[in-house]
Amino acid sequence: MKKVLIVGATSSIASACARLWAQQGSEFFLVARNAEKLEQTRADLIAQGAKSVTVHTMDAVDFSAHPSMLESCLAALRQIDIALIAHGTLPDQKACEGDVQVALKEFANNGTSVIALLTLLANHFEQQHCGTLAVISSVAGDRGRPSNYLYGTAKAAVSTFCEGLRARMFKVGVHVIDIKPGFVDTPMTKGLPLPGPLVSKPEQVGLRIVKGIERKVDVLYAPGFWAVIMLIIKNVPNFLFKRANL
Amino acid sequence: MTDSRYSWGRYPSAPQNAHTCSWRSEVSDLMSRVIADHGTTLPFGNGRSYGDSCLATSDQVVQLRTLDRFIEVDWEHGVVLAESGVTLAEILALSIPKGWFLSVTPGTQFVTLGGAIANDVHGKNHHLRGTFGNHVHSFGLLRHGQDLLTCSLSENPELFAATIGGLGLTGVITWAKIQLMPIKSSQIDSTVVRFDSLAEFFKLSAELDHQHEYSVAWIDCLAQGAKTGRGVFSVGDHASYGSLSVEKRKKLQMPVTPPLSLINNLSLHAFNEAYWRVHPATPSRRWGSYEPFFYPLDRVLDWNRIYGRKGFQQYQCVIPDAAAEVAMNELLAVIAASGQGSFLAVLKRCGDAVSPGLLSFPLPGTSLALDFPQKAELTALFKRMDAIVHQAGGRLYPAKDAHMNGSDFRQAYPAWEQLEALRDPSLISRFWKRVIS
User: Which of B18, B102, B198, B332 could cross-link to B63 by cystine, CB 3.0-4.6 Å?
Assistant: First the structure.
C-alpha cells in the first residue's frame, strides 16, 4: 500500500501505473485538467482496489495553483510515497517554428511546469526524508531531432534537472527516477506514423515504471530496448546526424 | 498510430481501419467523424468474432477496446458496471478474489463486454443459465446523432432485446452492467470420460448435464467407421473448497503467421488419435484452476495464426433436440468423408433458457463447432453441411460465420426484420449486407 500523487493522472501511462498501485490497495491524489476524465479515472481505480482516491483539477502551467494543490494533497495523504509527474503534450513542431508564443507555451507544458512542480515537491520531500519523485520525460530528450526538437528540448531540460535533483535528494534519502518512454500507443501519439514493432502498449510501460520505482532505478528506458537504440543514436556524430531526417 | 484489425478467422481477409478513442465522452464525436468521412461504420471490440460479422462494409470501424475502465463494482451483490471495452479476463481479475465469477463465459476470456453482449455469447453452462444476455442488467447505447440511451428490460426494452445478439448494428454499447455469480473457489471439480459414439454422448449428456454447472464434449471429427462419433465428455462445477486466485500463468505467443496452415491432415489425425487415447475410458475426477477448464486456447496468444495466411473458418450450428442425433451423425459422416476438419471440435447440449436477445443463437438442442483451415474445397463441404442443418431445422452462429446464405439465415432467424428495423442506419457489417439481401 502506497500513498501516491499523480500529476497528469488521466494520461494513459499514468493510468496504467495507477492501476497496478491500486491493486496493492494504494491511496491516491490525482491531478489533471479535465474534471470528467479525472472522475472516470477515480471510479476505475476504486474498482481496481484503491483504498481512497481524491481528485484535484489543475492546469500544470498555472504555476500559482501548485502550492495549494500540494497543500490539498498533503491534507488527503499526509505523506507522499510516490509523486509521479506524467503530464505533457506532443507539440506541433512546425507550429512551434512559426510562432514564438506557441513554442514558449509548449515549452511551459512539457518543461517549465515540470521543473516548477519538482522544485516545490523537492522541498517537501526533503522534509519527509523518504519517497520517490518519478518523472516521465522521453527518449526524445536524448537528441535534438528536426521533427520534434521543441518537445525534445523541454524533455532534455527535465532530464538534466532530474539528474541534479537526484544528487541533491540522494543525501536525504529521497529517490528521483527519470523515466524515458519510447513510442507508446496513447491518445498523444494517435495518428502519428510510428514504426509498428517499436510501439509499446501503455500497460507494458506502466509495469516497467512501477517495477523501476521499486528497484530505485535512476534513469529508466521503457521498454528497456530503448536504452540500446538511444545509445546508438546518441553516438551518431553530428556531421551525419544533421543530414538525417529523424 | 493507424491500426489494421482482422476478424479472428482472418477470413475474409479485409483489414479494418480502427478508429479509437479513450473516453466515453469521445465516442459520439468519433462515430460522427467516421460516418461523415466514410458513410457507415461498425463497432469493433477485441476482434474475436470469427467471420465477417465484425467487419464493416466501409472497412472503417470504431474500436472500443480502449474504453476499458470500471465504473462501479458492488461486491456485496456481484454487480459490475464497466465500459464496454473491458475484457472478461479483466473482470475476472477483479471479481475472483471477491468470490464472484462470470455467470456465463464463452471459450475465451479475451472478448470485450460489448462484444459478449452484441454476440449474446454462451458457454458450458447454457443448459442452466442461458446466454450472456440473460445476465445483463442494462447498458448504454449510442446511436448516431442521438443522445446516449440506457437500455434494460424496462427502459427502451425493444432496443435492449435487439442489441443483445444484435451484432453491433443497433448502436455502440459504451457501458454495461452485468450480474456475476458467487463462487466459493476459483478451482473447478471436473469429471472426464471418453465415449465411443454419438449415441453414447447423448446418453452421457442426458444423464450428467443436469447434475453439473458445466458440460461440454470434444469430438474426433475425423474418426470413421466403427470409431465415428468418438470423443471426450467433460462436466464440471466450481469447487466448494480451494482458493480464490486469479490465474497468472505465463501465456505463450504464436509469434508469426506461417505462410501455410500448420494444421493439416497428417498433424490432425495424429493429434486426434492421441487426444482421445490419453483420456480415461471410465469417469475420472480432476480438480484444477478455472483457466485450463474454460480457456485452454487462451494459453497461446494469437493462436489463430496457426492456420496460416489464408486463415480459417469456424462452422458452428445448433440442431433442435428432436433431430439432433440423426443430424449430428450425418454431419460427422460428411466431415469425416471430406477428410477436412480440425482438432477443435466441440459438442454441447444447449438448454431451453430463453435469451432476451432477438437474434440469440442457441436453441434447445445440440451445438457443434469446428474449425477448418481455409481452402476452396470448403465451399462444397459447407453447402452439404448447410443442407443437413437446414433440413433438421437448425441454424448457424453469426458470430462465427463467413459463408451462410441469406435465405437460410432469414428463415432461421425470423426476428431479423425487427433487428433491421431497429438497426442504426449508419452501422452495417459485411455479414449483415450479405445475409439480408
Answer: B18
Packing angle between helix A66-77 and helix A113-128, nearest 10 degrees?
A: 40
Cell numbers found for residue B55: 467487419
Judged by CB atoms within 8 Å, which residues 58-87 of B form the interface with A?
69-73, 82
A185 touches chain B (CB under 8 A): yes
Type of residue at A25: G
State the nearest Cα–Cα gap between B1 and chain A, in angstroms. 5
pLDDT score of B266 more than 80: no
| A60-67 long-range contacts, CB within 8 A, separation 24+ | A60/A7, A60/A8, A60/A31, A60/A33, A60/A87, A60/A109, A60/A113, A60/A114, A60/A117, A61/A105, A61/A108, A61/A109, A61/A112, A61/A113, A63/A112, A63/A113, A63/A116, A66/A116, A66/A117, A66/A120, A67/A120
Closest CA to A232 of A139, A167, A153: A139
Interface test with A, best of B22, B62, B72, B96 (most A CBs within 10 A): B22
Cβ contact B70–A187 (<8 Å): no
pLDDT of B1: 43
Pairing label, strands A175-181, A219-222: parallel
Q: What is the pTM (predicted TM-score) of this model?
A: 0.94
Is residue A246 domain-resident? no
User: CA-CA distance, A163 to A176, in Å (whole number)?
Assistant: 8
Residue A144 · residue A158 · CB < 8 Å: no
ipTM (interface predicted TM): 0.91
Q: Are B395 and B130 in contact (CB under 8 A)?
A: no
* B-contacting residues in A 24-43 (Cβ below 8 Å): 36-37, 40-41, 43
Beta-bridge partner residues of B70: B82
* Domain-embedded: residue A104: yes
**Per-residue pLDDT reduced to its tens digit, B161-195:** 999 999 999 999 999 999 999 999 999 999 999 99
Query: Which amino acid, B255?
Result: P
Contact: A48, B70; criterion CB under 8 Å: yes
Number of domains forming the structure of chain A: 1
Alpha helix locations (H) across chain A? 12-22, 35-48, 66-77, 93-98, 100-107, 113-128, 149-170, 202-214, 225-234, 238-241
The CATH number that applies at residue A148 is: 3.40.50.720
Q: Does residue A122 belong to any structural domain of this protein?
A: yes
Residue from the list B2, B25, B69 with its beta carbon closest to the beta carbon of A44: B69
d(CA A159, CA A128): 23
* Interface membership of A200 toward B (CB under 8 Å): no
The grid cell for A9 is 493522472
Q: Is the pLDDT of residue A185 over 80?
A: yes
Domains and CATH numbers, chain B: 70-183 (3.30.465.10), 187-405 (3.30.70.2520)
CB contact under 8 A, A40 and B70: no
Quick one: DSSP state of residue A205?
H
Query: Three cell numbers at B424?
Result: 442504426
In a domain, A113, yes or no: yes
